[in-house]
Amino acid sequence: MSDLVPDISSVVDADDAADAAAREFTRRGGSATAPDGSEIGRALVVVVGDLAAHGDGDASLGPLLVELLEEAEFHVDATIVVSGDEVEIRNALNTAVIGGVDLVISVGGVGVGARDVTPEATESLLDRRLPGIEEAVRSSGLAAGATDAGLSRGLAGISGQTLVVNLADSRAAVRDGMATVTMLARHVIESISDF
């Protein structure tokens, strides 16, 4: 059997298979490969919102982001749901950076409300801002009719070896934002991993 594929022939149940795959993923340095052999980056999703954190809000944005990331050939490590608290948001983003993911996408908390503090939580973690991505997400969102995306205060930048992007929390903003971000993310991730 190939050294890139874990030997799970003796695995009895799905939990053991998942554990074996995770161990193999870690053994290979945390990068998965697509069926055609191309590299896939690791990603983490952070959903920000008081209602979502208490199980009352629209829970569909996390799975939507995971689906869009997987379509773009990213391996999604996890989805974290936090309230609109600056410290909780910063801790979730920092967990992703420390965990070594290539891309962390947060959704929510980028408006002008009192609890919209995702940009403030993100800014302190960034080593370099990427205003080109920020503006591309805003302008494409506005052009697509996602007003919340066009008015978003969301940031994009690099923290260590991780690309961090904040998106607005409507389905239209997420779909349009991810179309823009995934197009640019590969280039950024390749550039920072070569550094």
UniProtKB/TrEMBL annotation:
<dbReference type="InterPro" id="IPR036425">
    <property type="entry name" value="MoaB/Mog-like_dom_sf"/>
</dbReference>
<comment type="pathway">
    <text>Cofactor biosynthesis; molybdopterin biosynthesis.</text>
</comment>
<dbReference type="InterPro" id="IPR051920">
    <property type="entry name" value="MPT_Adenylyltrnsfr/MoaC-Rel"/>
</dbReference>
<dbReference type="InterPro" id="IPR001453">
    <property type="entry name" value="MoaB/Mog_dom"/>
</dbReference>
<feature type="domain" description="MoaB/Mog">
    <location>
        <begin position="44"/>
        <end position="188"/>
    </location>
</feature>
<keyword id="KW-0501">Molybdenum cofactor biosynthesis</keyword>
<dbReference type="Pfam" id="PF00994">
    <property type="entry name" value="MoCF_biosynth"/>
</dbReference>
<protein>
    <submittedName>
        <fullName>Molybdenum cofactor biosynthesis protein</fullName>
    </submittedName>
</protein>
<dbReference type="GO" id="GO:0006777">
    <property type="term" value="P:Mo-molybdopterin cofactor biosynthetic process"/>
</dbReference>
